[in-house]
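user: Please review this fold.
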Amino acid sequence: MVSNTHSPGSHEFKVLSTELLLESPILGVRRDTVVMPGGSAARREIVEHFGAVAVVAFDGENIAMVKQYRRSVGDHLWELPAGLLDIADEDELTGAQRELMEEAGLEAREWSVLTDLITSPGFCDEAVRVFLAQGLTEVARPEVTGDEEADMLNQWIPLADAVGMVFSGELVNSIALAGVLAADAVLAGRAQARPVSSPFRYRPTALSERRKARGVVPDMKKL
C-alpha cells in the first residue's frame, strides 16, 4: 500500500540487489529488486541494450529507407538506416555516419539531431538517437556477408509518402515513425533540430560498461 504521506513523483526507487539472468551478444537481462513507495520490495526484469542510432537521410524530396526482415514479428518492415552503438566508446554521430554508409551507401555534409526516444521503457533500457542528414553523396557500401542485411531492400521514398505510410499503418517501426514525423516537422519549419553535440541523456550504459570491464572491445557483441 502506498503511504498517505507519500507525494507522487518524490519516491527514491532504491535498488536493493541486482541479478544477471542472461547474457547474449546483443543484449542482457537482469532482475533488480527495488523499494516501492509503500516500503515493500518488488522485482523488475530489465532487458539491457547497447543503444542505437538511426538516420533520416533527406535529399530535398526523398528519404532513404530500408525494408528488412524482423524475426520478432515475422515480417519485412520499412525502417530508417540504423544500427547498434556496439563499438566501445563510439560517439553517436560516428555510429550514425557508419550506419548510413553501410546500409544506404551515403555520406552527408550536414547533421543534426531530430529526436531521442526510449523504445520500450516498461522493460528495456534501449534508447535511440535519430539524426537528420542532408547534403548527401553516394559512396560504395561494404560487401554484405550475411544475416538479415543480405535480404535488405533499399529505396528512396518521398518524405510526404513516408508520412502517409505512418497513418496508413504501412510504417510501424517505432524508430522510423518518430524520425519521419520529426523530420517532417523540422523540414516544414514547425520545429527545430538540435545540434549533434546535444547530450544523449538516456543512452544505456549497463551492458556496454559490463562488456568493457570484461575486455570485450572494440566490438562489444563478440562474447
Q: What stands out?
A: Helices lie at 92-104, 159-168, 174-187, 206-213. The mean pLDDT is 95. Residues 123 and 141 are 35 Å apart (CA to CA). The domain at 52-187 is CATH 3.90.79.10 (Nucleoside Triphosphate Pyrophosphohydrolase).
